[in-house]
Amino acid sequence: MPNACRFCGATNRQITNEHIWPDWLRDYLPAVRQPGHSERWSSAAGRDRWRQPILTAKVRVVCDGCNNGWMSQLEEAAKPIVGPMVVGQAVELDATAQQIVANWVALKGLVAVHTSNVEQPIPEPHYRRVHAFEGAPPNTMRVWIGRRWNLTDPNRPSRAQLFESHFMPVTNVFPGFPLPPDLERYRSEGGVFNATVFRVGHFFALALQHDWPGLRARPKLGSAAADALLPIWPAGRTIQWPPPRPVEDLGDPHKVTRFLQLAPPLAPVSGP
Ligand SMILES: [Zn+2]
Question: How many domains would you assign to the chain?
Fold first, then answer.
């Protein structure tokens, strides 16, 4: 179904050629002609990296109804909250702000994946859930944010690298990913974990999406990630961004999921 909207599944609407990143980012980023850097995994192709001028990158995957409706509202809501983080300004995020940021991260991560021509590996239901909730699904997505300290392009030190995005089907490509037995069973029965990671300016986001409602996930206690990643979804108590450590302390952003600790959902408490 090449003409179906990736999010709502509609086949009777115009699929528009849309910018991945919103125009409002121009207000927060200096000269944005520099190429960004994207990479992703697929089980068949392995690690795939490319550079492109990301602010101008377009994809044809979303219908005009989605684009002009919930997605546009989400961009409006995100701009005043994400914008300051993009330029590295300290902010306080209450539960409402956390939800807005998480919704934006959920959307942008799934759209950015489409910059690659490699076959789309994220299952259809993951897009449908984000559409259904108009953002981050409550039980099948976790979102963390952090701060990128240094904007210098590691490969071209005289220039800044303002964008970066990564995608990985976590358990497919990290055979060493330490999975408890219950999770190994989930995976062997076809369960998936997808991670989308991206950076825009100083803002860094990691979203983990799965099919196991209530799955617990957190950065390993005592690891650098525990001090570099702030949980924002499900939303909780008010937090201060940036966290104490920059995400550079986590090394290769493509391997950031190795810092996550996963555990099956807690058994429901019975009785009154
Ligand atoms: Zn749509």
Answer: 1
